[in-house]
Amino acid sequence: MGSVNLASEVAKKQTDVIEWLNDLFPDFNLPPEASAEELRARLVDGSVLYAITRRTNPGLLEESWGGDYLSPRTQMEYLSSFLLVVNELSLPTFKVVDLELGPMAPVIACLLSLREHTSSSNGECRSQPLNRSTDFGGDRLENMDVSRGENTRGLQNTISLVEERKHSFPELRTRVLRSPLSSAPSSPLSHQVGHKFHETFQLNQGRHSDLPAAKILEMTKSNSLDTAPTQSLLSIVNGILDECIQRINGEIPQRVACLLRKLVQEIERRISTQAEHIQNKNNLIKPRKQKYLSRIRVLETLATGTSEETRIIINQLQLIKAEKDKVEEKKKIGDQDVIRLRKEKESSERKILELQQALETSKKSYEQQCQLLEAKASLTKVESEEKIKELESLLADSRKKTKELHALSESKIQTWDQKQHTFQSSIVSQLQLVKELRASSELIKHEVVSTKMRWSGELNSFGLKMKELTDAAENYHTVLAENRKLFNEVQELKGNIRVYCRIRPFLYGECKSSTTIDYIGENGELLLTNPSKQGKDGHRTYKFNKVFGPAATQEQVYLDIQPLVQSVLDGYNVCIFAYGQTGSGKTYTMTGPNLSSKEDWGVNCRALHDLFQISRDRKNNIMYEVGVQMVEIYNEQVRDLL
Ligand SMILES: Nc1ncnc2c1ncn2[C@@H]1O[C@H](COP(=O)(O)OP(=O)(O)OP(=O)(O)O)[C@@H](O)[C@H]1O
Asked: How far is CA 612 from CA 487, 562, 570, 624, 627, in A?
């Protein structure tokens, strides 16, 4: 909303500026509703602006700067001149780049301020055709209304400054600089009077000193000095001073000196008046300057707002551009889809053609098949007619059979009725039996319940007995331990050290008559006879725990040793060894002659067998670890055989 108001305000101001320029320069001839760019095109070369400067400051005179074509440098000089004047007037100004490319708002604001300034200080400028070659020419300025110069006297300081700065442009040639004094007097009437005054004192041949005293008195007494143009006064002063120079040794008449003093006084008076006037103008300009400065600030704020809006619009444009890119991308995808669909269409058309061809071929084959089928149908018709005849005969037969079957079924129905009757009677008897069975099942149920109760009682008693058995088993272990203890005590009683004697039979080739054994007792007595000795020395008796004769088997020998193996597993230390001379049968007794036969096993094999057997029997109660060590003791040296 703010931007719309701002835009309309700028447009309104632009219209005002165009109308003002049309009024100033009829040749400008730009429609009030022209766009900012059209206005820019008309102002950008600086000629119009420079013409405005001249119209508002007629004292600024330039030589013609060329024809219709303006070089860029000339354009820049025009613009610089215009901007210098605007700056010196403390009016809102603008940058050259604003006029060329930027927003026109600062240019329009500047021109409006200039219009206000000129209308307030100068009144409306008279319209003149805008002709660069004549408008900028110096001849026209000679004929310009002097009163306009009077009204723009407040700008003379500015003009002076402009002229000074123009010297910085070498191409600019200042032609005339009107001094403030040269612009007086101030009215057309006084201008006329001034001319008369000048004509009065115009000397064709004579000198000022030659003027009659009456005429000089008339000049000094009358108020014609007040109304005379300053240019005339200066020319008279110059004339008098020229005379003085020419007459170096001559005397200047008193009256001429009086006239000169009068003229100088008048010039001084005018200078002081101009100074006061300038001071007043300066005082007037100061508040205006303040006002314009505040307007500049407002315009800057508006310009900032405009830039913000421009930024928003740029952002929106970027968004629109992004959307446009998306739409184009979608369009591309759509084009690709169209191409793909076209390809699919072509492929489907090819397929349709193929299908049509296949259809035609199948149609032909179908027609052939139809012809074949028709031929077959005619054959089949004949056959079917024959079959119908056959079927009719069969139907007659079947009707006959049906009648027979009907009769048969009736007889069967009767039979079935009889059977039904029988079944019904049997069902009645079965029902009776079922009732009896139910009664018997009830009895059985009672029996089962009573048996259950009885069994539960028996189970209870069984549990009690099991408990007793468990207790007994526990007692059994105790008793078993007691038995073991007693067993080992028996073994101890038998003797911790037992000595058995085994007499081996004669070997093949040994003489049996050389035997010395006389008697072998039941309790381990052994009586030996030595035939070489007489008397008591010829008989010797020995006592062992037991003596095994030559006929004793390996098993008999081991039976006496076996209880010691059990003692080993009960935790007692047992040692069994054989002692005897070479060839007496130690190896035979301890190992056995032939290990492949169980009967020939010696003590060692049998003891190891029993050791593992008993440990296996006791594995539920005791875990045994069995180890073996084998050493040789020879000449009191122990050697590990393993
Ligand atoms: N009870 C027996 N019955 C039959 N033959 C026997 C008996 N005892 C020993 N022999 C035989 O007697 C011979 C000598 O026996 P054995 O080798 O056991 O004697 P040894 O004491 O071990 O001898 P060494 O000390 O030299 O080793 C062997 O041929 C053996 O078969």
From this structure: 20, 13, 13, 9, 12
Q: In CATH, which of 3.40.850.10, 3.30.420.40, 3.40.50.720, 3.10.300.10 is domain 496-640? A: 3.40.850.10
584 labelled binding-site residue: yes
Q: Of ligand 1's atoms, which has the minimum distance to the CA of residue 593?
A: 31
* pLDDT (tens digit per residue) in 478-530: 888 888 888 888 888 888 899 999 999 989 888 877 778 889 998 999 998 88
Q: Find, among 601, 594, 595, 557, the residue nearest to 576 by Cα.
A: 557
ipTM greater than 0.95:
yes
Residue 494 CA to ligand 1 centre (angstroms):
28
What does each C-alpha distance from 83 to 49, 86, 564, 610, 637 come to in angstroms? 9, 5, 143, 139, 138
Q: Report whether CATH 1.10.418 matches the domain 2-178.
A: yes
The domain ranges of the chain are 2-178, 185-252, 496-640
**Burial letters 604-641, b for 16+ CB under 10 A, else e:** ebbbeebbeebeeeeeeeeeeeeeeeeeeeeeeeeeee
Which has the closest alpha carbon to 43: 57, 67, 24? 24
- Residues framing ligand 1 (Cβ under 6 A): 504-505, 507, 580, 582-588, 593
Is 587 annotated as contributing to ligand binding? yes
Residues 610-622: tens digit of each pLDDT = 999 999 998 988 8
| 502 CA closest ligand 1 atom index | 1
Rounded to the nearest angstrom, the distance between the alpha carbon of 627 and the centre of ligand 1 is: 29
